[in-house]
Amino acid sequence: MRARRRRTDSAAEPARELKRFVRAGPARDMDVSIVGAGYVGTTAAACLADAGHRVVAIDTDASVVDAINDGEAPIHEPGLDELVAAHAGDRLTATTAYAAVAGTDVTLLALPTPSAPDGAVDTSIIEAGADAVGEALAGREAPHTVAVKSTVLPGVTAARIGPRLGAAEGVHLATNPEFLREGTAVGDFTAPTRIVIGADSDRAADRLEELYAPIVEAATPEPTVLRTTLPAGMMIKYANNAFLAGKISLINDIGNICKAYGVDAYEVAEAIGLDDRIGRRFLRSGVGFGGSCFPKDLDALRHAARAADYEPTMLDATVETNDRQPERLLELLDRHVDPAGERIAVLGLAFKPGTDDVRHSRAFPVIEGLQDRGAEVVAYDPVATANARAVAPGIEYADSAAAALSGAGGAVVVTDWDEFAALDAAFDAMARPVVVDGRRIIERREGITYEGLTW
Ligand code: UGA
Q: Mean pLDDT lowest for which of 161-170, 214-223, 285-294, 337-346?
């Protein structure tokens, strides 16, 4: 008898209800420009057009602009294609020309703010965008609100963005952090838990409330709109991500202890999650967090803390614990296999399921650790192989999980793609059926040596 995989409620990370509505009604009165058509910018543009506004998306990449104008989302995100297709050429247009900003009332800056090598935030891209917006607005008489949606440290908006926009001359500044997740971006944007507006004037805050009014009215439960200062708006974003990342590292710490004592960390998580001071979500222990946000934002906050002469011990520990999990996964493999000269399958390359994004994926330290042990690595991911190949070119990539497992002397699971839960006969084709699961997606079963990372 095979034990059922116990994926507890606390393990499920539900998507918000995806609003597949396309509003028919008349356009609302706002003209909005969104600078940067990446994940956040394109989602905001399509959803705000859907909410009734006239939106122009501005991006320096002509292929991104062409895609939007052709009615196609330039990124893969469930529900986004439909919204872009429904509104392109009508309430949603795209251009490479920053001059379009001048014809709008509100601008959202959604440009990338990557990490500099020392962990600081590299604001050069958003600063250049602000320069271009400032130029486009020069000479414009009507007041204009510019909200920074990108994640920048408190203080950056007033000190480095505002002056470039001509903040002294009728430009009202705001910070408006975004909390959407990759893979559920449209649902998260259209049904947010809260909308945070940090503003330097009532005018800016009022304009943003007006911008979000149709979303607030349509969402159930109604999101809370919080008004605060410019720097607090951004600190809320960093605190939010730091807290969630900290929650994952704390459950991973507990999980590692559970494993040592033969306790199932998921049972523990289910029980403690019922205490609503703790909450059930973000308690999935395993190989740790990756992605474009948690690692980057933690680095930025730790860097900012040190710049202010403060040692952020909890944040440091969050990163340290996260960095340790891939090696713990491999230590469990070492218990059953000497990876030297063995073919070892890595299942999953994306930083989480539902995306082809491999930024800071835990797969890379796992692959490196296997290579250090002299293993012959074969990896598989349903969608992220092309992106992973660019980061880790020196390994074999298989076309299916079954092909990766065939003849392998061991396997490690890094991403919780649903299809891995359905693997069955594929394990029979392994040379040595040892599976170390970093995401609790494979069932413990007869015929394979199964190790869960924290269970
Ligand atoms: C995260 C936040 O959840 C969003 O609110 C935020 O807007 C976004 O960063 C951002 O700053 O842009 P995202 O990186 O898309 O969103 O992904 P998450 O779903 O939060 O997952 C992040 C990582 O944590 C993944 O590697 C995931 O596997 C891991 N994770 C998540 C766990 O290991 N355990 C959990 O219980 C939950």
A: 161-170
Q: Which residue's CA is the nearest one to ligand 1's atom 25? A: 289
Q: Ligand 1 test: best mutation among 152, 283, 293, 297, most atoms within 8 Å of CB?
A: 293
Q: How far apart are CA 307 and CA 304, in angstroms?
A: 5
pLDDT tens by residue, 296-309: 999 999 999 999 99
Indicate the average pLDDT of the chain. Answer: 93
How deeply is 157 buried, as exposed, middle or buried, from its count of CB atoms within 10 A (0-12, 13-18, 19+)? buried
Of all atoms in ligand 1, which is nearest to the CA of residue 10?
A: 36
The confidence score (pLDDT) of residue 3 equals 40
Per-residue pLDDT at 47: 98
With a Cβ cut-off of 6 Å, ligand 1 is lined by 13, 178-182, 241, 244, 248, 282-284, 286, 288-291, 293-294, 351-352
What is the radius of gyration, based on Cα positions, of the chain? 23
pLDDT tens, position by position, 233-246: 999 999 999 999 99
In this prediction, residue 167 carries a pLDDT of 67
Does this model's pTM top 0.70?
A: yes
Mean pLDDT of 374-388: 97
Residue 13: predicted pLDDT: 59
Task: Give the 3-state secondary structure of the chain.
Answer: CCCCCCCCHHHCCCCCCCCCCCCCCCCCCCEEEEECCCHHHHHHHHHHHHCCCEEEEECCCHHHHHHHHCCCCCCCCCCHHHHHHHHECCCEEEECCHHHHHHCCEEEECCCCCECCCCCECCHHHHHHHHHHHHHHCCCCCCEEEEECCCCCCCHHHHHHHHHHCCCCCEEEEECCCCCCCCCHHHHHHCCCEEEEEECCHHHHHHHHHHHHHHHHHCCCCCEEEEECHHHHHHHHHHHHHHHHHHHHHHHHHHHHHHHCCCCHHHHHHHHHCCCCCCCCCCCCCCCCCCCCHHHHHHHHHHHHHHCCCCCHHHHHHHHHHHHHHHHHHHHHHCCCCCCCCEEEEECCCCCCCCCCCCCCCHHHHHHHHHHCCCEEEEECCCCHHHHHHHCCCCEECCCHHHHHCCCCEEEECCCCHHHHCCCHHHHHCCCCEEEECCCCCCCCCCCEEEECCC
Question: Which residues, listed in sequence order, are joined to residue 54 by a DSSP beta bridge?
Answer: 31
CA of 181, closest atom in ligand 1: 15
CA 343 to CA 407: how far, in whole Å? 7
